[in-house]
Structure formats: C-alpha cells, structure tokens
Design a protein that fits this description.
- The protein is mainly alpha-helical and 214 residues long.
- It folds into two domains: 49 residues, Homeodomain-like (Arc Repressor Mutant, subunit A), CATH 1.10.10.60; 162 residues, Tetracycline Repressor, domain 2 (Orthogonal Bundle).
- The protein is 79% helix and 0% strand.
- Helix 5 crosses helix 10 and helix 9 runs antiparallel to helix 10.
- The longest helix has 27 residues.
Length: 214
C-alpha cells in the first residue's frame, strides 16, 4: 500500500519525537530516523531538509499545543478547584515533548528559532501565572501584596520550566518507564501547589485539598 506524502511526513514527526524523547535529540541522526522508519534517507529529505527542520516542526506543534492550553485558561473564569487539573495538563504537554527540556541548553545553542519560541512560551506561562495569582487575590483567596503575588507567579514559572531537567538528573534511566512518567507529572503538580498553598486562606487550602482528593 502506497503511503501519501502527508502520512509519511507525520510518521517522520511521530517517530522522531519518540526517538528524541527516548535518546535525546543530540544523539539521534537523520539516518537513524530513516532507518528506524525503514524509509530511504532521500524519502526523509523530501519532507525535511535536515534534522533542524524536524526539530522546528516538532517545536511548532508543541508551541501550538501549550499555547492552546494557556489561551483556554485565560478565557475561563479562574476557580481554585481548576488549578490542579490545569497544571496536570500543562505538565503532561511538557512530558509529551520532553526532549525540548531535557536537552534545553544544547538545543538553544543550535536553534535560534527555539530560543525565541521558548522565550515566548515562558512569557505566556508568566502571564498565566500572574493572572491566576491576581484573580485569587481579588477573590480573597490569596493573601499577598501585588509584589508578593508577582514573585509567587515567577517562582511557579521557574519550577514549571525547570522541573523536567531536575527529574531527568535523578531518573535519567527511568524516563521510558510509564510509572515514572506519571510520577513525574504528579510531582510537578505537587511542587507548584506547594508554592501556592501557603498564600491561600484557610478555606482556600481546604478547597484545594478537597479538589486534589476528589
């Protein structure tokens, strides 16, 4: 059965993402991707001029995915009960595209477009965290001055951005384990909520705990 060019392109992206996530982007060559897919290098080059083009296409998909998540959060009324589910979706998106974060220094040194793209993602995360903290403060659920709320939002972004590299240092050999993946996501959510919890009112802390237990 002859595969359409679009399907071949998607197969290249899907398998490249898997290989980058498993082995790290620097350790995967175009020849290895083609060999794994059992297609000729020429077929792969028909769709992508080089590995950088594959990385760029994958990052654009990640950017669209996480951007849609942040946009949806900005449009909705912020409820304390929704914070943990939103953070879980955020970390799951990061996990699906974890090669970006596990090899972040190397990638940024070689891909200018990723540098600019990641900077934009971090800014959007900061906007979302700031919106969350301000909304909770205005609702009387967060006891913090504007300066404290801004610092809290920044700390949440720092943890969200640096969590995966931290996990990779402690569990590099377990990154392919599904149980480790689930634990990594949940630990990330827990750490961000741990930053938020001390600033909440007593009622807010109870509601957050109840939502987590549900």
């Amino acid at each position: 059965m002859t595969r359409t060019p679009r399907r071949t392109r998607e197969r290249i992206l899907e398998r490249s993402l898997q290989l980058f996530n498993e082995l790290g982007e620097p350790g995967v060559t175009v020849a290895a991707i083609a060999d794994d897919l059992r297609i000729s290098p020429g077929n792969l080059y028909y769709h992508f001029a080089n590995k950088e083009a594959i990385v760029t296409a994958l990052f654009e998909r990640f950017d669209a995915e996480i951007g849609a998540l942040l946009d949806e959060a900005a449009r909705r009324e912020i409820r304390l009960e929704d914070v943990a589910p939103f953070l879980r979706l955020l970390f799951e998106s990061i996990w699906r595209n974890r090669f970006v974060y596990r090899d972040i220094n190397d990638l940024l040194s070689r891909h200018r477009s990723l540098e600019l793209g990641l900077q934009a993602i971090v800014r959007r995360k900061a906007d979302a965290a700031t919106l969350l903290c301000r909304a909770l403060a205005e609702a009387g659920e967060l006891s913090a001055t504007p300066a404290e709320a801004e610092a809290l939002a920044t700390n949440m972004v720092v943890v969200a951005t640096g969590w995966l590299p931290y996990e990779y240092i402690g569990g590099a050999r377990r990154f392919g384990d599904p149980d480790f993946a689930r634990g990594c996501v949940e630990r990330g959510v827990t750490q961000l909520l741990a930053l938020l919890r001390p600033w909440l009112s007593s009622a807010g802390r109870e509601r957050l705990s109840a939502a987590r237990a549900a």
